[in-house]
Amino acid sequence: MTTQSVDTPDLWAGLSALEEPPAPVWEDPVPLAGPRKLADFPVGALPGWLREFVAAVAEETQTPVDLAGCIALSVLATAAGGRSVVQVRGHWREPTNLYVVVSLPPANRKSAVFGLLTDPLYEAEQQLRTLVQPAIVEAEMTARLAKEAADKATAKAASASADERDELVSTAIALAQTADSVTVPAKPQLLADDTTAETVTSRMAEQGGRISVMSAEGDIFDIIAGRYSGKPNMGVFLKGHAGDRLKVDRQTREEYIEHPALTMGLCVQPQVLDDIGKQDGFKGRGLLGRFLYSVPESLVGRRKIEPNPIPEQVMETYRRHVLDLTLFLAEWTDPAVIQLTPEAVTALKAFQARVEPMLEARGGIMGQIGDWGGKLVGATARMAALLHLAEHLTKGHTVSVAEATMRDAIALAEYFISHSLAAFDSMGADRITERARTVLEALGTHGWREVSKRDLMVKLSRSEFRTANDLDPVLALLEDHGYVRAQAVQRTGGRGRPPSPRYLVHPRLTDQTT
User: What is the bridge-based pairing of β-strands 261-268 and 99-103?
Assistant: First the structure.
């Protein structure tokens, strides 16, 4: 019997080929997001008279047109908020108040811009006070006389004989009820600045459910965070945006507002956004998701020394139109209902269809700010109604919002997407991307071809990654971008700690950090 010789080297080579998996094929990773490209403010979306004034203010003050444009939206919302709503479809209605905040460094002449834009509102406020002053005087006199009569009747009843007391007590009670029923109208107020949450609530209750906080500083955020109370107090700011019923029932005060409408137009320094993003009280409550953010580039260092002044006619037209709109809507106790044309509804639906995928938690550009993005379509309807009112002034309730106006509002919404993403980056909403860069640096530094989640936790800062769960969204993002690949966990079935998940690392990271 003969035996065949075996070529041992070839056999071992074959076995090695079976045992060793082929080297993984890697495509180039997708870079993590860098600094965002910010959209230009679509000043052309504003009605003609407002567009001209906004551009002229930006020119004379040498400030970004974004600042005047955003504050102009707040001015319109101050005039219309609480006095009009927009009928979107079905039972969906949106109030016409807005929360807008612009972030600019110091020396950007914010106060000058605020003054130019809000002056007509203060003038309208004064005119409203003049109109209501006679009614206030009459009501105050009536209340005083009624109280004096009730007091005299009470004193007379108290000293009356037993057979006269019942009749005099009844008279005193009736007079006291009459005195209590006399309501003295509050002095009209459109604007508030240095205020507390309690004062905002009281002012809205006095003013038929509406008030506007307009400020060139960011102090209101400190107040919301609890400057005076020691803890965040944001209930009125949450409900005042949505129009949800607000009831205050405390020992010191009792107030009820059926449909609160709060408008906020603010300009803050960039540090304010950084700070509020670090305060736990602002997270998870939804307040930051209610603001439309603008973070324009400062012009300081590139400003004209002798800019063109605002033309007198342009300023007068702005003043007159803001006065007309504000005084007209102030007369509405039941809100004016602004309707949309079918074409405007179709345009808004198409925009909503575009926005929805952007909200997907993994992959959507607004996935990390879903709370903000979820309110964007409603904010767009609000802006469309405001643009419509600015176009038609005292006749806005008699005609429906046109498709072109809705498209202008959508242009503004797209602008705010760009800038709000950048603002939330500053406030830490994009911390996952920041942490992903930290992990990339660690992978490149240690030159791992393969690494476990446990190994990463050993090398990373515990101040940034407190638990292993903090790594999960970061590793998911890196896997989506092609920097790592999760390996199947091999379970032994025995007791003890389960194996730590392992990841293959893109070869490029052993050469350089991306």
Answer: parallel
Q: Are 436 and 505 in contact (CB under 8 A)?
A: no
What tokens appear for 91 in the block?
């039972």
Q: What is the pTM of this model?
A: 0.79
- CA of 144: how far to CAs of 156, 178, 397, in Å? 18, 11, 40
**Between vectors from CA 34 to CA 33 and to CA 35, what angle results, nearest 5°?**
130
Length of the chain: 514
Report how far residue 138's alpha carbon sits from residue 1's, in angstroms, rounded to the nearest whole number. 131
How far is Cα of residue 94 from the mean position of the Cα atoms in its chain? 15
Residue 398 has pLDDT above 80, yes or no: yes
Contact predicate 104/66, CB 8 Å? no
Q: Work out the pLDDT band at 352, boundaries 50, 70, 90.
A: very high
Query: Which tokens go with 285?
Result: 């409550």
| Beta carbons of 65 and 54 less than 8 angstroms apart | yes
DSSP 441-459: HHHHHHT-SEEEHHHHHHH
For residue 45, give both structure tokens: 């979306």
Map residue 421 onto helix, strand or coil.
helix
Q: With contact defined as beta carbons under 8 Å apart, do 116 and 182 qualify?
A: no
Residue 421's contacts (CB-CB under 8 Å, 6 or more residues apart) are 36, 365, 366, 369
What local confidence, expressed as pLDDT, does residue 357 receive? 93
Contacts 24+ apart (CB under 8 A), 436-443: 436/32, 436/474, 436/477, 436/478, 436/481, 437/32, 438/464, 439/471, 439/474, 439/475, 439/478, 440/32, 440/478, 440/483, 440/509, 440/513, 440/514, 441/513, 443/483, 443/484, 443/505, 443/509, 443/513
